[in-house]
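4.2 Preliminary Data

To establish feasibility before requesting continued support, the project team ran the inverse folding procedure on a target of 375 residues. The structure was first converted into the token representation described in Section 3, and no sequence information of any kind was made available to the design step. The complete token record follows.
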């Protein structure tokens, strides 16, 4: 059986894109993930389908501090000294230079999986972040063309990567979808928050950053007032936005609780800043959760989200800075029952197109092409 090493310079407990890819690939290959480590985590974990080594404690090979960077690079190459693989799968730009060197050493194949945008400059970030980002950009620019295949998260980003780096082949778009499941409508949010039946629940899930538009959504919720409520699910920092008709649900278990909460809302709500380079190219997990749960949505008119919303009739994609347009879209979904039911019907009929089973098939076909065999 062919062997695959996935490189991931992250210490997050779970990266569902990485986990889903690893589970899918383990059906045909022997998969190992090498990543960062938090103090509470074990250095080795057997996931059944694949194994995880967490080898970076305090420093990463991309650290800005020379002594930490050197120590981490030594750790990385010490780990791989007696380990050889048939393919190195690099998640995001910081891992790419190391994956390239290891693949060259082993005469192995190399796949680059671009989760984020690294080819455009960033603004309004810390100096430390900008320096690290610049090094990542340089690594992507130098090594992306040397990969045997490139994967990314949306069709628009795939086209842009090909254009910017002058790639011969358009990168493969693997969407951040879930495995298909029938999600039943429920009252999870109403029961958790003790809301009356007549409440109209706007639901947002995810982390916090200035570009994600949390403040904007809170402002809209206060503006439309009751019976509208905004329910936020995510890290504890979101709790500071609770008050009035805005509620904090806490951090929900992603595999089941989060989807249950999504299915219990009335409108999916996501108004990020479309000037943010990552938002511009993204199709986030929550977008596909809304579709799977048949939750009509009001989202920003970032190009990729707008394309899908308008093509399939999933709700409304609006200028997030046009308050009147956002309020109008929210109220139309809430009070125009014919329109709302049409959107629900569109989602019911099309949601099978946006499931991990379809993305898994594309991933396995790519691997078979790159490695030249299924096993």
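Position-by-position output of the design step:
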């Amino acid at each position: 059986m062919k062997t695959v090493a996935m490189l991931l310079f992250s210490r997050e407990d779970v990266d569902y894109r990485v986990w889903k890819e690893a589970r899918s690939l383990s059906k045909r290959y022997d998969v190992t993930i090498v990543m960062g480590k938090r103090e509470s985590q074990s250095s080795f974990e057997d996931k059944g389908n694949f194994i995880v080594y967490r080898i970076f404690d305090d420093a990463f090979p991309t650290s800005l501090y020379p002594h930490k960077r050197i120590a981490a690079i030594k750790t990385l190459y010490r780990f791989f000294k007696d380990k050889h693989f048939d393919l190195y799968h690099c998640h995001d730009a910081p891992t790419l230079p190391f994956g390239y060197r290891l693949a060259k050493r082993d005469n192995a194949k190399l796949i680059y999986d671009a989760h984020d945008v690294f080819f455009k400059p960033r603004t309004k970030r810390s100096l430390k972040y900008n320096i690290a980002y610049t090094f990542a950009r340089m690594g992507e620019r130098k090594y992306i063309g040397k990969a045997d295949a490139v994967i990314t998260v949306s069709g628009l980003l795939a086209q842009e990567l090909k254009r910017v780096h002058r790639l011969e082949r358009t990168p493969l778009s693997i969407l951040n979808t879930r495995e298909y499941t029938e999600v039943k409508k429920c009252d999870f949010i109403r029961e958790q928050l003790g809301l009356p039946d007549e409440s109209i629940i706007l639901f947002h899930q995810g982390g916090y950053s200035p570009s994600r538009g949390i403040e904007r959504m809170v402002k809209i919720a206060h503006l439309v007032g009751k019976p509208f409520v905004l329910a936020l699910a995510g890290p504890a920092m979101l709790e500071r936005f609770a008050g009035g008709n805005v509620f904090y649900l806490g951090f929900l278990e992603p595999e089941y609780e989060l989807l249950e909460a999504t299915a219990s809302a009335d409108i999916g709500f996501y108004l990020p800043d479309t000037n943010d380079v990552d938002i511009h190219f993204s199709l986030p997990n929550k977008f596909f959760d809304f579709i799977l749960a048949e939750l009509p949505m009001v989202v920003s008119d970032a190009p990729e989200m707008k394309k899908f919303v308008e093509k399939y009739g999933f709700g409304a994609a609006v200028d997030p800075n046009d308050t009147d347009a956002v309020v109008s879209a929210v109220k139309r979904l809430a009070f125009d029952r014919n329109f709302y039911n049409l959107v629900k019907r569109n989602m019911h009929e099309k949601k099978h197109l946006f499931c991990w089973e379809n993305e898994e098939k594309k991933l396995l076909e790519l691997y078979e092409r790159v490695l030249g065999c299924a096993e």
